[in-house]
Amino acid sequence: MSFRIAVIPGDGIGKEVIAQGLRIIEAATARHGGECDFTTYDIGADRYLRTGEMLPESIFSELRQAGAIYLGAIGDPRVKDPRYAAAILLRLRFELDLWVNLRPARLITTELTPLKDVNSIDLVVVRENTEGAYAGIGGQFKRDTADEVAIQEDINTRKGVERIIRYAFTLAEERRRSGVGKGRVTMVDKSNALYHAHDLWQRVFAELRNQTKGIEAEHLFVDVAAMQLVKDPSRFDVLVTSNMFGDILSDLTSQLVGGLGLAPSGNINPDSRRGLFEPVHGSAPKHAGKGIANPLGAILSGALMLRHLGAEPAAAAIEDAVDAAVRARCTTRDLGGELSTEAAAEAVLERLAPKNEQ
Predict the structure, then answer these.
(1) CATH no. of 114-256
(2) What is the pLDDT of residues 125-161, one digit of tens each?
(3) What is the CATH number of domain 1-97+269-358?
(4) What is the rounded distance in angstroms from the CA atom of residue 52 to the CA atom of residue 48?
(5) Which residues are catalytically annotated?
(6) 304 within 8 A of 280, measured Cβ to Cβ
């Protein structure tokens, strides 16, 4: 099986962690009878500062044809144009219609959680990825005056809301059947305040809940959900919510299991099978070039990508190897180890089991 993967190392530590992620992906697929065809694209601050180009049409058309996109990070303090990150990352999400943002949070060892008396966390935040407040609709009136008005619209369509909630129910059923999850969907909104936009979420959720058998379904306001995630994260399985709330809650859940350095994400379209996979820690320019960045978020994002592409044995092998390395404290300092970026990836590589040991 061959996988065609577009690689965008991007900015800052993105280049460092993606280089290590590629090593792990290539080794895992090779050990399980697969092969990766990587094409690396010069997209990022260096190109923009050199040429003024953000995401040229010629490259965008090639990215449309890739089996998946593996992205490091976008963001560089040398670039002052506020449109820069949106012109790359949000354009890929919106124009490829990657309407699911998938953020799993799984506790590998209790040493990593800041919570007391928590033994297990294994949940997924399903975030609507192409609408909401991030749609970019709004404007400013009388800017930089005492009478300035700034408006940002929160866009919610029935199509967008229905497909993301339906996806959450499907995912919960898959997790229940596999023995991973509890078979529970928690829909998170703020319909008691955003009663026009989130009434739509309430009505669609009620309809789909009535159509779905064998899956528990509950609703929580976002403030209550945040509180309950800290109080008892083990009660959650699949959380589904809007773009902005998903952005916030997924960072919270990442911190509960060890921090953003360990957090993977996928941006996918289940219909077209397009996908973009990236660690969520950002470009972290102050850490770039020091060899201290945690590569595990990028490595686990690679596992998500392989699972999306149908390479389940290779994906599982990567996750098992990461678990073993973390439990042995063969990690960078943010997870309690003393290793460099490259050495932390090497620790995972050493723990990749050959095919006959899976």
Answers:
(1) 3.40.718.10
(2) 999 999 999 988 999 999 999 999 999 999 999 999 9
(3) 3.40.718.10
(4) 4
(5) 134, 190, 223, 247, 251
(6) no
